[in-house]
Amino acid sequence: MHLDSRHPLASGLTHDSRLVRAYRGDRPDVTPVWFMRQAGRSLPEYRALRVGTAMLDACLNPGMASEITLQPVRRHKVDAAVFFSDIVVPLRLVGVDVEIVAGKGPVMGEAIRSNDDLDRLLALDPAVLDERLTAVTEAVAQTVAGLRRIPGIDGATPLVGFAGAPFTLAAYLVEGGPSKDHLRARALMHSDPLAWSRLMAWTADVTGRFLRAQVLAGASAAQLFDSWAGDLSLTDYSEHVAPASARALEYVKDLGYERGGESHSVPIVHFGVGTGELLAAMHGVGADTVGVDYRIPLDEAERRLGGGVPLQGNIDPAQLAAPWEVLERHVLDVLARGASAPSHVLNLGHGVPPDTDPEVLTRIVELVHAR
Amino acid sequence: MHLDSRHPLASGLTHDSRLVRAYRGDRPDVTPVWFMRQAGRSLPEYRALRVGTAMLDACLNPGMASEITLQPVRRHKVDAAVFFSDIVVPLRLVGVDVEIVAGKGPVMGEAIRSNDDLDRLLALDPAVLDERLTAVTEAVAQTVAGLRRIPGIDGATPLVGFAGAPFTLAAYLVEGGPSKDHLRARALMHSDPLAWSRLMAWTADVTGRFLRAQVLAGASAAQLFDSWAGDLSLTDYSEHVAPASARALEYVKDLGYERGGESHSVPIVHFGVGTGELLAAMHGVGADTVGVDYRIPLDEAERRLGGGVPLQGNIDPAQLAAPWEVLERHVLDVLARGASAPSHVLNLGHGVPPDTDPEVLTRIVELVHAR
């Protein structure tokens, strides 16, 4: 399906931005840089805005979600906005009883413990999301408009859409909340593979529709985030998880546009924590760019991917608190290793820690842009 | 230093047990099997015994710790007892304010947040442990005696001693308790490497003395457990962690004995969760046998270790809840892959989950012993 001609990619606004070029495998003059979780908890202007508003309410308030998404672009001059949302937003909208508890994470009113629980969940039709995502699409539209009004950036800064991968959502649903080892979820995939695959297909449809809606509304790239995939062996990932991740990405893969007489698809990024063993399999589900965790050097990731895959990452968030000389050396090392890939989007190898000094992030952007 | 001639290894009692032979790199007739965390929470007889006793009090009660250690040997007929203790026991004994909170883990009265905090900690002299570990050495002695009285086993079942690795202890001390990503600990190693190495040397001395005491009192092998090493890149592990792990193992490495005219050292096993990237480095700190997490197949671990290293592992705990046919296939697959190593001790690729049906563990032991 063709994107609307006014979409930032289709209109040409973001098509040649540093970020989209790098996601296409080109090497722009300057390495683009953004930070996972740049929108949110590390910024004082975010904390001020959020006072008195619950996390999911903030995600579903278009003005607030859009303003929060814009804050780090204004402050750090990063090369991408990343949509402020949460991976459980589509679960809430489809009818799942879920809340985000501060300092803990998503907590379900009811964990999936039986086939009856599962049947009740699967009775919620993912197709209803197409009509319930208006707060999200409105926030995306406001963000895209807002990006053009930020002084000091060129107006072509792309917005990255964001959704959780099916395994991570399924893990929360089965566990009922955060878990150290996701043992219940991983047990279910072995003890009842049929129930597991039904659950995974459902979460794929839910999160796929969420991601598609963001792209249709104006996001210029789509990142699928598998927080917990690193808990899986390659065999389990390939057999019990990858098919659902591919299914989720199908919702975005058919979205394309024409520029300069050529057809282009919307760039897809796939990232998971601790997934050094899974990089090639995660690329294989349909990602264009692979996000790399801080544990694996980018040149090693390039080797594991067999070459030719754009990489995103992987500053260790633990280095953000180090003296500038130490951090600078680390950033330059990441850039040097990223040079082994066809293209590189500098990012963290995990989200921005809440107590990060925002000025450190700004300084990293300045360092990269000045090279 | 030579072990006492009455030590189970030196007297010959356990020297030719399946476990010790496999740890030496021999292949006994039957693959030895034991389970990490076999002593404890999954057994009803354990839960009955523990009623009204706090975790660390149970660890420091020789009769109770010894009885808990023996329970799974009686029940499952495993090829090793593993000492019931906790990695923070030596911290408590050296004077650190630490408690184990049920469902959470070790919680420190005070986290290390400043150089003053660190100085206060380092003022506690690890050498005092040699006199404060009597409850531990008494429990070990009672266990060794108790193993000879269990009907249906041959009396030569060895006891495996157990201690936490310096990084895991340091992570708890810096974080103040369990943490998802150990960001404060990992930040300290980059922001103040000198403070970090002082802390690591201290934890190495504390936990090394704890492990040594268990071996001197009668343990026939020593397992160093690095719960959180999997959070580290290979570079950080090698630079900021491995030296301290090697230092901890120095406390055991000089303990030896003579059998059949040959000198032998006490077998050392090193295991960490999610450490597929670190296997060779973890072997390099002085381990004889490397424990492998469930994420990496044993034949791949063998390849990464360059061959020649005895392996321990790696049944996925998530498979313990699967139907027997599924679990049996998985166990046989683990055994087949373990055949690529010079020798193999069957174990889990992480601890026994609390809600495991103990009969499943017994059935695994029967399956392995019947082959």
From TrEMBL, chains A, B:
CDD domains registered for this protein in UniProt: URO-D (cd00717)
Residue span(s) of domain Uroporphyrinogen decarboxylase (URO-D): 32-41
Keyword Transit peptide in record: no
GO terms under cellular component: cytosol
The EC number(s) this enzyme carries: 4.1.1.37
Residues annotated for substrate binding in this entry: 37-41, 86, 172, 227, 350
One GO molecular-function entry: uroporphyrinogen decarboxylase activity
One Gene Ontology term from the biological process aspect of the record: protoporphyrinogen IX biosynthetic process
Pfam families (alphabetical): URO-D
Pathway, per record: Porphyrin-containing compound metabolism; protoporphyrin-IX biosynthesis; coproporphyrinogen-III from 5-aminolevulinate: step 4/4
Class of the enzyme per the UniProt entry, highest EC level: lyase
PROSITE patterns associated with the record: UROD_1
Keywords associated with the record: Cytoplasm, Decarboxylase, Lyase, Porphyrin biosynthesis
Known catalytic reactions: uroporphyrinogen III + 4 H(+) = coproporphyrinogen III + 4 CO2
Positions bearing the site annotation: Transition state stabilizer: 86
Transmembrane segments: none
InterPro entries with a match to the protein in the record: UROD/MetE-like_sf, Uroporphyrinogen_deCO2ase_HemE, Uroporphyrinogen_deCOase
Main location: cytoplasm
Subcellular location: Cytoplasm
PANTHER family linked: METHYLTETRAHYDROFOLATE:HOMOCYSTEINE METHYLTRANSFERASE RELATED, UROPORPHYRINOGEN DECARBOXYLASE
Similarity annotation: Belongs to the uroporphyrinogen decarboxylase family.
UniProt xrefs under HAMAP family: URO_D (MF_00218)
Biological role stated in the UniProt entry: Catalyzes the decarboxylation of four acetate groups of uroporphyrinogen-III to yield coproporphyrinogen-III.
Subunit relationships: Homodimer.
Annotated protein name in UniProt: Uroporphyrinogen decarboxylase
Protein's organism: Paramicrobacterium humi
